[in-house]
Amino acid sequence: MISPVLLFDLLLGLSLLWLAWRTLAAHTLFEACVSFIVFGLLMALSWVRLDAPDVALAEAAVGAGLTGVLLLGALERAERARVEAAPGPWWRRGAGLSALLLFLLLAAALITLPPRPPLPLQEALPLAAAEHPVTAVLLDFRAWDTLLESAVLVLAVVAAWSLERSVSPPRPAPVCSEVLRSLVRLLLPFSILSAGYLLWRGGHAPGGAFQAGTVLAAAGILLLLSDLRRPFDLRRGYWPLALLSGLLLFIAVALGTLGYGGTALDYPPGGGAALVLLLELGLTVTIALAFIALFSSGRSRGDE
Amino acid sequence: MSEALVVLMVLLPLLLAGMLLLAPGGWRQRMGLSATLLSVAPLPPLLWSVWHSGVVEVALGGWQPPLGIALRADGLALLLLTLTALIALPLGLHAGPWFRAHATVGGRGGEWFWPLWLFLWSSLNLLFLAADLFNAYVGLELGGLAAVALVALGGGRDALQAALRYLLLALFASMLYLLGVALLYGAGGTLDLALLGGRLESGVASRAALVLITLGLSLKGALVPFHFWLPPAHATAPAPVSALLSALVVKAPLVLLLRIWFELFVPLGFGAAGEVLTLLGVVAILWGSLQALRQQRIKPLVAWSTVAQLGYLFLVFAIATGLAWSATLLHLTAHALAKAALFLAAGNIVLALGDDRLSSLRGASHGMPLTFFTVGLAGVSLMGLPPSGGFVAKWLLLQAALEQGRWLPVVAILAGSLLAAAYLFPLLRHALTGTLKPTGESAGRSLPLRLELPPLLLALLALLLGVLASWPLALLKPAMPVVLS
After folding, report:
1. Burial classification of residue B272, based on how many CB atoms lie within 10 Å of its CB (0-12 exposed, 13-18 middle, 19 or more buried)
2. Could you read off the pLDDT of B350-391 as tens digits, one per residue?
3. Which residues form the domain of A38?
4. CB interface of B with A, residues 375-434, below 8 Å
5. Are B413 and B394 in contact (CB under 8 A)?
6. Which among A51, B28, B194, B471 has most CB atoms closer than 10 A?
């Protein structure tokens, strides 16, 4: 007998494969984008099944939500510019064959992997600046990586801005309807509240800056779409400082700890939890504004 | 103290990039040079420290590997940090006036160049210092994104197309590398390169990791047949960017590959796979040179020459001796200096003539003798003529190949030098003969000294490297992987 859980996992796996195929074999790019978004949602579900709720939250928010919004935005512009993207049959076959080879290689490697060696994480966790292991890894044990990743986010926005003059996309027509407006009015306060909750929760349970930032970004994008607020240009005023706040705060903490104890990012005893919360706050703002900037890049030009 | 210097090498350019972003466009260009000077500041004391008291290791956050991340400033890292700084300083002098002159002919990008370059610089320093494989991945991502944006500054359809292709390739290559790293982590339970060496066993997972990491990094390092993205990207980018890309950006993944290969894969007994890389390196030398010979335009010619010169860096995988390893890194250094000089000089020529066809070079040396002198000097090093750095590097590489009885690399090195002479000669022949055509308004425009001197300085450094080769070699010696020494 197959247990219901196993049946669910099998169905989930098969739907993932089917959606991946639909994404690749779609007749129109729009169909492909939608399939990809659904693929991201099911992927998030798979992460839940794999006992990785942090990854699941990030996958749902970034992989399905924001990537989907960016893809549809790009598609809108591509259609206006009449971009035709149809790789030839040989190109497709070659890509398919390489993907198959890669799959076989990974499958063979994964099957033969030894059982997971014990990690020193559990012993060190009581000494870390956060209770939740994922947050402890991201903001204490491997905070250096997170600092540099926040630089990658800022850099992505800078790259998009530096391109604006060369590509100059057409401004899309506003899509606001009264339904959307009232929905946004209703949702906005709750989004901000839940972002704050996710941020605070990250210290001891799944959640944290990434999840909070994406929730805020989604709220910001809805606000832009609803035309409730005049389009704002993130390159002007204090916005760049806000965008950079996560990165600059991180660098400031790194330099501060370097000056204080001689080791970068080694938090002073007792001050770890507060510094981690401060860093997460900055990161939330940077993540939210980075996604909003990527989405609205080229859109807020109408008032010039 | 020296631990702080190591961290500053990465953080300082990053911080300055952030600060420049907050400044308005005009200020960015004015402050770019000061930011460059400031970013170099931690290097001299760090060099002093490593030279006199050996490797500096930093456990970030106070967490030792395998839990935390380490940065390791060994001789190899210091050589590359110094090389980057030596290129950054003349480039900083050159880029400002170049972008200003470029703007007068309708070009854009000056305001974005400086922050993007500082991001790139930070990522290069990180890649040279990283002792952690995932940290190196973050460095690859940061550098790849900055490099793509820098290529796109060229504006125009060709540059955007080249940048997009470069972006897709860089992402694909990063993904392959990351998959390989994930497998190594699964097999060894750590991401620290030094610790991983003692924990890995030969098996399907480590073999698959070898394939994935080598594939990913040689895609980024433009080894033939994965070179297709390089000529358009390097040829359409603004001149200072082309110099950075050819001199440094393609080298960083190769250095990472050299480290992982000789510290991890060779001790596991996978060294024989290096034969394939060396064979491809030989093909790269010949194919890149032949393509360079066919080019009718200046910048594509120089870009194809990079494809050829990168081939030499792959000969070490089959020769696999300490001598070959040192010679390879010396060649990397010499090529970086000479190629940066050549690309900046090429940019000057295109700027002055308003045209980049070789045929329009006729008589151009009268207007800018210093720039063509630079082309000649850089050419001496690229061809491997004495007393340049290129000569010493190729001589040592040749010696290493002969010691091991490897005839294919010997033939490739000799043929590559002859072909380099053949493809570089037209640059000078056209310029030194004939008189300038009187047509074309911008033709023969004389260049300011601030544009002509920096490339000359770089070319002189490439030449000087031949005389002072014992310095980098002494720096490298203690950093040599155990299997080679």
Report:
1. exposed
2. 888 888 888 888 878 777 889 999 999 999 999 999 999 999
3. 1-77
4. none
5. yes
6. B28
Looking at A45, A77, A109, the residue that finishes a domain is A77
Stated as kind and residue range, the H or E segment containing B70 is strand B70-73
- Do A157 and A300 belong to one domain? yes
Judge whether A85 lies within some domain: no
Please check whether residues A165 and A252 belong to one and the same domain. Answer: yes
Last residue of a domain, one of A60, A77, A94: A77
pTM comes to 0.95
Set of chain A residues whose Cβ sits within 8 Å of the Cβ of B153: 162
Q: Which helix (H) or strand (E) element contains residue B57?
A: strand B56-59
> Interface pTM (ipTM) of the complex?
0.94
Q: Which of A98, A104, A127, A144 to mutate to probe the B interface, most B CBs <10 Å?
A: A144
Option in A124, A154, A162 nearest B152 (CB): A162
Instruction: Give tens-digit pLDDT for B144-170.
Output: 999 999 999 988 888 999 999 999 999
Q: Which of B1, B63, B134, B161 to mutate to test the interface with A (most CBs of A within 10 A)?
A: B63
CA-nearest residue to B64 within chain A is A141
CA distance A277 to A263: 20
Residues A69 and A183 in one domain: no
Is A144 in the same domain as A238?
A: yes
CB contact under 8 A, A142 and B69: yes
Tens-place pLDDT, residues B396-437: 999 999 999 999 999 999 999 999 999 999 888 888 886 665
Is residue A200 assigned to a domain?
yes
Q: What are phi and psi of B482, to 5 degrees?
A: -60, -40
